[in-house]
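Can anyone check this?
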Amino acid sequence: WLSFWLLVLMFALLGQAWNVLGGYGGQFSFGHALFFGFGAFGTAILQVRHGLNAYAAGAIAIAVTAIVSAAIGLLVFRYRLRGAYFALVTLAFAEVARVLVASFDYTGGGFGMLVPLARGAANFQFSDRRVFYLIVWALVVIGCLIALWLENSRFGARLMALRENEDGAQAIGIDLVRTKVLAMALSGAMTATVGVFYVQNFLFVDSHLAFGPSMSVEALLVAIIGGMGTVFGPLFGAVILHALGEITKQVTGNAPGLNLVLYGVLLILALRFLPNGLAGLVGRRAQRKQEAADA
């Protein structure tokens, strides 16, 4: 169960990272695997190839990913790409990165990269997995605080304004490109943090896992199912998604590709019956109870 909850919390943070850009900013990315992969491979390469300390490697990987995210955002948003065009461009970036990383020995080629086992807090490797559990909980709390900050800050207000109406937001003086680029940099840094944590926990990463479309799909699914543009939506979505995934594995014997079918079905059902996600459903019920009590 500890491994299950580690994955749930890790993907809750991944969903919260997507939520910053997709939920609060309205920019639907299909390529967040790119940022996860940069964080994961960045910290692995710096440790294995260059002998850096795990903490320094992780910090550099996150910082570089934020810069790369901002650069991609500047390139994409300058030409006002949005909607399906933005989603496809982000997916293309992730796929190109996957192919390139799998092609060079420096990045482990098709096999991937193994981080040497060296247990100890100095190497961000802990014998007791409960330490990782506490760390990822702390990261999830920080992610929720960032979402709460977005709901109560001027930057968040600008971001949500352009989500609702870009032309209207521009008309009142909001710099669309700057706001989107900053949101993308923040989202990319948060996603890279998940990649760094993943590598330190499992001590392995490969191009298909890190840059593959399934990582991007899970990032957006947990936010959509839980509730986009909400503080706790990604956490709700991660619990439901992975609980159903585990039940499906037990019933079907972990049939290959079935998880993608499940994700597709859940996405259709969520969009059809829960357009505001589980958080929206909980909010509506609480509002009805309050109205009934007032009446």
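Reply from J.R.: I decoded it. The chain is about 75% helix and 0% strand.
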